[in-house]
Amino acid sequence: MESELSRIGVSLPDILLDKFDVIINNRGYSSRSEGIRDAIRGYIRYYDWMSDIEGQRAGNITLAYNHKQRGVEDLLANIQHEFTDIIQSTIHIHLDHDNCMEVIILQGEGKRMTEIYENLVKNKGLQHVKLNTIIPSEI
Ligand code: NI
């Protein structure tokens, strides 16, 4: 358990804070601080889990985006063309008039999977970027 507490100031868009408040209320947190601490712990756990991905893996990355946002499709294609060593296939679904979902099917070196994930997730135009992998030899 952490003992020392530091106070920080964070600027957030209202819409993000509103959504967060709904979640922490639904989950029964006693304060925003408690919810934020838990969210940061989850963020760190996910990063640590990502850092352990190596060796032969199979996996997928799911993401969503608004295809009318300028440059986003070029960006997505450019990134994927840098990872032809691990990309087996890409499935594209047109969700509605504006929004698309892609599932990128991966097989190969796990460290390359975290590299493509990091390249994708840092782009604001791509949302819900999630990586999932399995170890084929452990099935
Ligand atoms: Ni589409």
Structure in words:
It is a single chain. This protein has four helices and four strands, in the order H-H-E-H-E-E-H-E. The chain has 139 residues and is α+β, with helices and mostly antiparallel strands. It folds into two domains: 14-50; 55-138, ACT-like. Chain A, domain 2 (Alpha-Beta Plaits), CATH 3.30.70. Strands 2-3-1-4 form a four-stranded antiparallel sheet, with helices on one face. A hairpin with a 4-residue loop joins strand 2 and strand 3 (99-109). The mean pLDDT is 94. Nickel (II) ion is lined by residues 67, 92, 94, 100.
Q: What kind of sheet is the major sheet?
A: 4 strands, antiparallel
Task: Note the total helix count.
Answer: 4
Strand pairing plus helix content: what structural class? alpha+beta
> How much helix, percentage-wise, in residues?
25-40%
Count of DSSP strands: 4
Bound small molecules, deduplicated: nickel (II) ion
Radius of gyration over alpha carbons? Answer: 18 Å
- The first-level CATH class of the largest domain is given as Alpha Beta
Mean pLDDT, to the nearest integer, reads 94
Distance between the termini: 35 Å
Give the spatial strand order of the biggest sheet: 2-3-1-4
How many structural units, i.e. domains? 2
What would you call the shape? globular
What's the layout of helices and strands?
Layout: H1 14-26, H2 32-51, E1 56-66, H3 72-81, E2 87-94, E3 99-109, H4 110-121, E4 126-134
Antiparallel strand pairs: 1-3, 1-4, 2-3
Bound molecules: nickel (II) ion.
The site of nickel (II) ion (NI) has 4 residues, from strand 2.
